[in-house]
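Dear support,

Our group has been running a series of protein-ligand predictions, and this particular one with protoporphyrin IX containing FE is the one our PI (initials K.S.) wants archived with full inputs and outputs. We had some confusion internally about which version of the output was final, so please treat the block below as the authoritative record. The input we submitted was:
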Amino acid sequence: MYPILVSAHSGLRWLVLLFLVLAIFSSLSKWQGNKPYTANDKRFSLFALIFTHIQLILGLVLYFISPKVRFSGDVMGNTMLRFYTVEHITLMLIAIVLITMGYSRAKRATTDIAKFKKTFWFYLIGLLLILVRIPWPFRNLGAGWY
Ligand code: HEM
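Confirmed final output from the archive:
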């Protein structure tokens, strides 16, 4: 169970990143080019939202079964334990809240340009937070590329 969840959580990062990048680039270029909001724009931002929410669910389960998460006093002194117990979850939760807010504000916006602007800014900040708190292999936090 645990290895399957870690693999799923690790591999899904690429779908999260792919759809966030697609939604961000598409909204920026259409905003700048004054183009209409289409079903594809909605699809990109919806898939990005769905995959980040699946990551949230998998991450929450992992948080309570992972050996890299501990609730003891020595956590802050250990780089890997501190990363997963405190840093990863905190930044990822903020990023997921921002992406969710961006999606719902874009949905409620009344003009196409407002939809693109909301999607662009909220998703961009969410993506940056995710990128800085993914345990990339070169950070030696015991995680792989997929
Ligand atoms: C979009 C959001 C997220 C992304 C892209 C992401 C990505 C990742 C990646 C790539 C790993 C390393 C997996 C490996 O190869 O070993 C990981 C590990 C982990 N993540 Fe996330 N994560 C996200 C959100 C969350 C959230 C919200 C939580 C907690 C609620 C969480 C909890 C964990 C835990 C506990 C581990 C360590 C698993 C282990 O190896 O034991 N993640 N995450």
